Amino acid sequence: MSRPGARRPRPKKATPDPVAATPASAAAQSAPAKKPAPVAKPPAAKRAATKASATKPSAPAEAAASTPAASTKGNATKQPAATKKGNGRASASGASFVEGDAPAEGVVLITGICGRLGKLLARTLHRETQVEGVDRRPFPDCPKDIVHHPFDLRRKKVRDVFRGGRIRAVVHLGALHDPRKSLKERHSWNVVAFQKLLDYVEQYEVPKLVVLSSANVYGPQPDNPQFLTEESPLLGSRAFGGIRDLVEMEMLAQSFFWRHPSTETVVLRPVHILGRVHNAASNYLRLERPMTIFGFDPMVQLIHERDVVDAIRLALAPGVSGIFNIKGRGELPLSRILRKLGRRPRPVPGPLATAALDRLWRYRLTSFPTPELDHIRYICMVDDSRAREVLGFRPSRSLEETIHAPMALR
After folding, report:
1. Strand residues in 327-384 grouped as ranges (E)
2. Which of 98, 102, 269, 372 has the highest Cβ tally under 10 A?
3. Residues 356-366: what's their mean pLDDT?
4. Percent helix / strand / coil, the chain, rounded to 5
């Protein structure tokens, strides 16, 4: 017993439990635990239907895969949106770095490495990353740290290059542009070989694919707008069968873009490339007396071959995907370009030029097929805003230097 008059100690207030104090938690504590209800398995037919639907490609992919090259006028294929993910900055070497990160490891595989652009790209990249190439042509001056696989892209040996799992990027420069080759051979080399390459990229989960196409897929047309964007229809194959393979390759690449978003797919469409390359534009400017079409003087866009290499390096940056028009600095009329080179053009009426060039081509007296005349008759200029904004591409060679680049071969 306590003494009379002694102060009784106050009872301590219980601190409420923040979980137990809520009615929901109290009910949860007092209620007995319920066993989870068994999940009924779907019948075998429903499971098979579900599995089949999981492997079906999306609607844009089906549309891209089923659209023939000649039916691109209506833009039936949804154009991949150009994106650049992450906050890294694209360096001149084509690698994207976040502060404190090291350059990406792995091998950059270049198809068509023995061509002029392939050699330029390989000699530029091999100082910063491992480079391998696939090309059936010889590479006698190949640097020692570059691995050259001298076999056909259509052969099964290409699979062995991917099996090691070291490929982090594929740059496809292996398109065949020789108009003297048969349609069957060009289709087999360009389309069939590219389809096999896409299968390897998918199977071995290569994170980056860069495809070099051409702005010629738009086609020179009398009703072309002044500048064509990446969403413009691909009409180049209507008059020139040699462009048909490029258009079909682009359809395959766009279909792959939608079906395999884990692989960052980039398609580059450069304008006429000038340099020591042996293409139609450079060969035309090397002529002392080039043919022009009487009454036509189209505006022309050009790009230096080394600027194309810089654009490919930027496209290799992680986080970049989509389609990009690539052009050099400025535009000039064809007559002014020829004047700067000291050429003496021969103006010929259109019908006469077509008949003459057709006969010269038939007797192998020229390297220019008749459809090439449209390039000196109509405009085909592109808008490169997307490449400037997303890739950060800026051509470093002046227009004057670009115009005189083919003369270095002489």
Report:
1. 332-333, 346-348
2. 269
3. 91
4. 40, 15, 45
pTM over 0.85: no
With a cut of 50, say whether residue 258 has pLDDT above it: yes
pLDDT(64) > 50 = no
The SS3 call for residue 141 is coil
Residue with tokens 């000699």: 123
What is the predicted pLDDT for the residue at 185? Answer: 87
pLDDT-derived band at 331 (thresholds 50, 70, 90) equals: very high
Dig out the tokens for 231 from the structure. Answer: 């969403």
Least confident of 8-17, 256-265, 386-395: 8-17
What pLDDT score was predicted for residue 85? Answer: 64
| Over residues 49-59, mean pLDDT | 41
For residue 192 the two structure tokens come to: 């069939």
Q: Of 218, 345, 314, 261, which Cα lies nearest the Cα of 81?
A: 261
What mean pLDDT is reported for the chain?
A: 80
φ/ψ (deg, to 5) at 348? -130, 135
Residue 38 confidence (pLDDT): 44
The residue type of 132 is: E
E strands, 239-280, are 264-270, 272-274
352: nearest Cα among 366, 375, 373, 333: 373
Domains and CATH numbers, the chain: 59-272+304-327+382-395 (3.40.50.720)
* Widest distance between CA atoms in the chain: 133
pLDDT of residue 337: 97
